[in-house]
Amino acid sequence: MSSQSIPSSEQTSTNIVLTIAGSDSGGGAGIQADIKAISATGSYACSVITAITAQNTLGVSAIFPIPLEHVEKQLDAVFTDLNIIAVKVGMLADSDTIKLVAAKLKQYQPDFLVVDPVMVATSGDLLLQASAISTLKSELLPLADLITPNLPEAAALTESPLPTDDLTMRAMVDKLRQLEVKNVLLKGGHLEQAENSTDFLILTDRIEELSAKRIHTQNTHGTGCTLSSAIASYLAQGNDLSRAVQLGKSYISKAIEHADELDIGAGHGPVNHFFHGHNNVR
User: Fold this and answer.
1) Record keywords: Chloroplast included (predicted)?
2) Does some domain include residue 177?
């Protein structure tokens, strides 16, 4: 390795993305999925761990929230040294953690914030205390450039029945717009009877539909974590919101399509983050 430094005219800035989320010991969701997705889509990942879960493809057996003081020290450590362009927020287990993360985001003001309001795991396990949902809505969601709820999460946020078809999913749009949020990506993956998996990107002035052919596989663990991280990665690379979401949707669709190439666990296995080798996914 040469000891000569690269001339400044040849140096390029690195697109740094921070993920603030819980750790998944099974490697399919949470921080582990986030780092894989950010890396696979061509950005540099750093992390702040908010909770440690004992988890595998069959479910979550324990959750240990990281003490607030240490969450704060992690946040200060990365923000005071790294040029973080985009932040993705995932699992925040309680109200105090949500308040701390919101306060630190206000302090450091990254260019982009994507919030995946993680409440329920693919296995059905509850990952967010019910009492913390109101704190999430009042403290964190208003700061986000984009929130990415799936249908159960959107139902919880709007206190609505769970949509069962395209019509009831569309009916949820107005209720989501009434939340104090800038933009919403409402994900339709839970409508398993539909031929396509259709998401609604709900912007202030319009709705964009993003549709992909539904892939029938049980290996969908970590899809929400992966998608939101990919979108944050593409935002960090200079794409506008609409384009970043399109690229993220394309990436997660291919990662699901190639999920059965992996043999991981006996339950809901992970998506294939590195289906395209080590090349950037575009």
Assistant:
1) no
2) yes
Domain membership of residue 111 (yes or no) is yes
Q: Is the pTM of this model over 0.85?
A: yes
Question: 25-48: per-residue pLDDT in tens?
Answer: 999 999 999 999 999 999 999 999
| pLDDT (tens digit per residue) in 174-216 | 999 999 899 999 998 767 667 788 899 999 999 999 988 888 8
Q: Distance (Å, rounded) from C-alpha 100 to C-alpha 92?
A: 10
In a domain, 278, yes or no: no
Going by C-beta distance under 8 Å and a sequence separation of 6 or more, which residues neighbour residue 107?
79
CATH number at residue 65: 3.40.1190.20
User: Active site residue: 30, 90, 189, 222, which one?
Assistant: 222
Catalytic residue among 99, 104, 187, 249: 187
Catalytic residue among 22, 224, 248, 269: 224
List 185's β-bridge partners, or say none: 201
- The domain in which residue 28 lies consists of 14-261
Distance CA 281, CA 258 (A): 14
- pLDDT tens per residue across span 88-120: 999 998 999 999 999 999 999 999 999 999 876
